[in-house]
User: Which sequence fits this backbone?
């Protein structure tokens, strides 16, 4: 490869594209008395769930990058993907360095731009999500199978930083395969499995989860004591552990305009001063396009991809794509000496895709909590989303 | 509208443009002894008043977006316009969803890129400015009249978030018309009226204002107790209210190289435990181009637009546009049991527009304050601005 | 210059380019017992040292701008260069207004994208670096000599702001020349000198320095008392002074694939209530390209520029550029009544440039500290960098 400056032509690299994502949410909460006792009186609210600007491009024919900042989330901005990728490092493998989603779980590996519901299912609580590390990944040439192996620091903060002498290293690996593919993707069965071994920095770990909605704002310009965000409904508190293992199993399918996806996640926490904990979570969800679209599968990532309406709502008419969806999910944060509680959520969703880049979403989430007794909450939430 | 992916051509959407605004200010304060007693010894300072980067574009032929972040203001970054727009929703109306300037007031609806003075006039204190909501707007085809109607959450914070069960909803509407237009805009009279009904979250409201200058920085790298920003000169403190109404009236004109603009704003605060407050504010300002330009009017927005010098300062010479301007403004935050004080400002300005995107500004602001007695301050301030 | 709008053509200005820089670092620390007593047990860590997005462009044929935000550094984001430039203001001089690196020092004037080591040498501690101000600069037409003169506010914070009545003004000037240039830059000798007079705001100043590595993160998501960043190893504490002077001298050379660079910096602090302090610092470093490249010199900036590998690592092969480098540096923060300590660092480095925009770096830094006795630390650090 000759240096770009060797000719008088304009250098071909770097290339860069400005990208972004906007999600503006509103949510209304109803709680029974027991739930208000447990977590306080959760306030209605409106919030930008994600407000991202990113630069994506290539520094050379085999080297790519992404710097993606989220101005809507707590770090203001928090880091989303901040990474560099070198292609074809060993055989046909790709090498990734930086802050990115660690390869375990199908739901959490699905882009926030392309989720069926407002939030990911409850079992995502267990997963490392974005951490700073190094990953090798590959796929079969026909993209019917893919795998990834990553070493990462844990836990990283909002900004991809991690400090601590006492551990803080982890591994993750995930493999997925399409076991049936018919009719150009209109009939498809996906399976996947994943594993992660975590030695957390400072030898502590904590799992906690809100219901499947997120309004994380403070109470506006006037500082009078309102709760400053949605509190976790289940919470283990700090758990002393030197090693924790995660196991994940995935099953998904497409059948015409119907698709379904399910995962089970198991966290096995080797407590420093106590018995080993077995903490499970699982969900199943399904979606159906009333307007005849099919959910596209991304074989390299082992996840579902973007919905492209058959007829976008444009200047010449069109009704967009309409989808109905439902999800059941469950998480158990209580075992042995840890009494973090259990929660199940049932979520019903209606999605209107105006065009490939714009959608409006409605979710109703019903949460049942078993922690210091039983309690319930219902949440109605909306989202307007655009990405580019 | 066929999906963009239906052809092998590069998809036409999304389109995106990187935009920005840079304002670097310096200010020097002189105060009489009474004013120093009232608000403390205000320190001289330099500051980036606005440092914005934004992505603006279209997701489809009828759907636009803007994500604009201000790195200079307190939220670091604070949200500026963060919104999506759907065109031609009902008849020829446009629908806007997100965080944007609520339609009340001419001065506050004028772009920060196109202001005559460094800061907006004192009555802007009363207005909601950017809040998270939904707006319908429209204009006559000849753009000689325009209107907007918005429902919004109040108050939103720096990041477009609002939390609170007890109210937090509001409406705003504004209508403007050109009653006289001659000579291709070189003779023009604009009138406008606006109204907003606000039920603030947590049933409290607060009005406060500095003089018409803003240096909001902390005291540099060495932490030795300097005042950390310009304090408000008038301030109602928290007012308990379940409903507040705002009334606005506008009058503006262009006559060749001269233009003038005036507004009156009335806030009627229905106190929870006290009498109704009537709080007024008003300003009038005028500008004159020594170099013969005419201030352009933007009919769809009902505001003045960008100054385009006849001869920009470029490699081939040119002196740019030179403008002199003056403003009188007034605000009264005292009524009944509330003793927030009154303030008047007189501001004189000199603007040098090097080209349509670059200007240097000088302002001298004289503030008279009536609050715990009478006091005075004089401020000399400069700005270098560029936008793209 | 006719206004851009005078024709129906698309206006030529503004132009804008999205640029960025990504540096992801990891560091491992070993300390002797005395060093742990002095500064605490420094934790290993990983961190994004710089994560920058910027807009760079022109508002007119003679007016440029840069808005560069660093999301990796403490201000989150901190301002990097935020400025506007007007060319050919007086003769062939350029005028710069905003927040930018003040002209004193060769190491600190070198772009963070183009440094030989992970961090600048210890004497950078004395230098003002980025401050808000106004600068005039010029160069000989053949770029064999260049100069700059700047007036600035001091100290500016992360966001370019400065507040304070009691001083806060400073001047800096630097001149550089190439005294020998042969063989199209493969043989070159650079000399430079610089001076700055500083009247710091609030009449106080503080110098402190870590070794030549930086991991500035808090301890991850779980809040259990880890040190939240790398502490300074030497530190004067606050020094009361109304005037401080800085003197700098530079010498650099290129000889084929070898280059070397050296600076001495002297800070003369006129203490308000004590004797004048003479605080010196100096470094010398050298680099050698195993793959035959030559370090490019940037005459206008008076610094070294970007390394362009002869054979980038691309889809067609290539091994990139390989460089070895070493540096000795020293700083003395003790004089008279001030006992900030002395430190020397020896740094060895290995750089692999995959292409002009991507590099991997290894540094080993050995620090000797003389402060409350003698102590030592060794640091092994890595970086993956991409810029665009």
Assistant:
């Amino acid at each position: 490869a000759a240096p770009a400056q060797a000719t008088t032509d304009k250098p071909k690299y770097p290339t860069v594209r400005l990208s972004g994502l906007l999600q503006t949410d509103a949510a209304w909460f109803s709680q029974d008395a027991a739930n208000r006792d447990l977590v306080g009186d959760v306030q209605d609210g409106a919030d930008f769930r994600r407000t991202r600007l990113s630069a994506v491009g290539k520094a050379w024919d085999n080297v790519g990058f992404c710097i993606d900042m989220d101005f809507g989330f707590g770090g203001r901005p928090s880091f989303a993907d901040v990474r560099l990728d070198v292609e074809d490092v060993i055989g046909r493998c790709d090498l990734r360095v930086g802050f990115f989603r660690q390869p375990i779980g199908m739901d959490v590996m699905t882009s926030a731009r392309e989720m069926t519901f407002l939030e990911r299912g409850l079992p995502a609580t267990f997963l490392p999500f974005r951490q700073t590390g190094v990953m090798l990944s590959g796929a079969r040439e026909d993209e019917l199978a893919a795998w990834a192996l990553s070493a990462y620091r844990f836990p990283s903060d909002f900004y991809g930083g991690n400090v601590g002498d006492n551990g803080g290293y982890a591994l993750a690996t995930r493999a997925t395969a399409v076991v049936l593919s018919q009719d150009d993707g209109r009939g498809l069965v996906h399976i996947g499995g994943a594993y992660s071994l975590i030695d957390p920095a400072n030898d502590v770990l904590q799992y906690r989860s809100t219901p499947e909605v997120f309004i994380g704002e403070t109470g506006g310009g006037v500082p009078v004591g309102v709760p400053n965000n949605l509190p976790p409904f289940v919470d283990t508190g700090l758990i002393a552990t030197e090693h924790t293992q995660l196991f994940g199993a995935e099953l998904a399918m497409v059948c015409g305009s119907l698709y379904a996806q399910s995962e089970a996640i198991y966290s096995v926490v080797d407590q420093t001063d106590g018995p080993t904990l077995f903490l499970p979570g699982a969900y199943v969800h399904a979606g159906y396009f009333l307007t005849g679209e099919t959910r596209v599968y991304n074989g390299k990532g082992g996840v579902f991809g973007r919905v492209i309406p058959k007829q976008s709502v444009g200047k010449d008419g069109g009704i967009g794509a309409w989808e109905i969806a439902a999800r059941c999910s469950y998480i158990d944060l209580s075992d042995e000496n840890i009494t973090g509680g259990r929660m199940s959520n049932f979520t019903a969703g209606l999605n209107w895709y105006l065009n490939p880049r714009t959608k409006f979403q409605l979710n109703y989430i019903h949460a049942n909590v078993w922690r210091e007794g039983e309690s319930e909450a219902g949440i109605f939430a909306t989202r307007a989303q655009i990405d580019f």
